[in-house]
Design a protein that fits this description.
The complex is a heterodimer of chains A (133) and B (120). Chain A is built from 3 helices and 3 strands; from the N terminus they run H-H-H-E-E-E. Chain A is an alpha+beta fold and 133 residues long. Chain A has one domain. In chain A, strand 1 (90-100) and strand 2 form a beta hairpin. In chain A, helix 2 (18-66) crosses helix 3 (72-84). The longest helix of chain A has 49 residues, at 18-66. Chain B is rod-shaped and about 80 Å long. Chain B is built from 3 helices and 3 strands. In chain B, helix 2 packs antiparallel against helix 3 (65-75). Chain B starts with a helix and ends with a strand. The chains are: A alpha+beta (133), B alpha+beta (120). Chains A and B meet through helix 2 and helix 3 of A and helix 2, strand 2 and strand 3 of B.
């Protein structure tokens, strides 16, 4: 009890390093900025993947209408080879492609997101799906 | 000499120092945040522009692509005054027959947006 009161009393003293306080605040601000930049980057990539998958299913539906004798898998492979060279997504893959009820094209596109900040070693798989009828 | 003495002096007002530091630090975060969202807004606008122009061209293959881009550019207040560069690729080579794969890439400064589609 006596020890506790002594330690509380020592709070009133002005002695101590301001550097620790300063560095802690600086670290907190760096983390805040890092989070902001990473969240923004991930949001933009997710939007781009959504756009990509929507355009992909629309193109696939158009190709399917023009070539009804070909299967959706064959057309998807053909389209993937044309599209892949245009985009610089990391590990871009079409996870699944299907024709639902014979009319609706459904596809799931996935890419790997990597943190844009060097000291944050983070990566995540972002998948987006789209439908076209 | 006076400055060195001032720096080595432990006397001061913590409230004043904290307010000064917080203003600087959060001012930095605010500036960076605004810049970041501005960049994000421009990127989203450019992607919309690329998608809308491509969609317009796919539905009207005989139309002029650059005209479609400048029309949609006028509608976006953020991109109105920008110098846009764009490139179009068509596979196979002609850009006006049914089944042609069309891809567009628009660049505005550091921002790049892409769009693609198949002519119906």
């Amino acid at each position: 009890m006596q020890r506790l009161s002594v330690s509380f009393l020592s709070f009133e003293k002005e002695k101590g390093s301001g550097l620790v306080w300063f560095i802690s605040l600086l670290a907190l601000i760096s983390v805040l900025i890092g989070t902001l930049v990473s969240a923004s980057s991930q949001f933009l990539l997710a939007r781009q993947v959504t756009d990509f998958s929507e355009q992909y299913v629309l193109s696939l539906k158009t190709l399917l209408n023009q070539n009804p004798s070909l299967t959706i898998e064959t057309l998807s492979q053909r389209l993937s080879s044309q599209v892949a060279s245009n985009y610089r997504f990391q590990n871009l893959s079409i996870k699944s492609v299907s024709l639902e009820k014979g009319r609706t094209v459904h596809a799931v596109a996935c890419v790997t997101w990597r943190a844009p900040i060097v000291f944050v070693d983070g990566s995540r798989e972002i998948c987006e799906e789209a439908y076209a009828r | 000499m006076k400055l060195i003495r001032l720096l080595s002096d432990e006397d001061g007002n913590i409230l004043l120092e904290a307010v000064a530091f917080t203003t600087l630090a959060f001012g930095l975060i605010l500036t960076l945040g605004i810049d970041l969202f501005q960049l994000e807004r421009r990127q989203i606008g450019l992607e919309q522009l690329a998608r809308n122009s491509t969609r317009f061209f796919l539905l009207n293959p005989e139309s002029d692509f650059s005209e479609a881009i400048s029309t949609f550019q006028e509608l976006d207040s953020q991109l109105q005054d920008d110098q846009l560069k764009f490139s179009i690729k068509c596979q196979p080579t002609d850009c006006d027959s049914s089944g042609t794969f069309v891809s567009l890439e628009i660049t505005s400064g550091d921002n790049v947006a892409k769009a693609f589609g198949v002519i119906p």
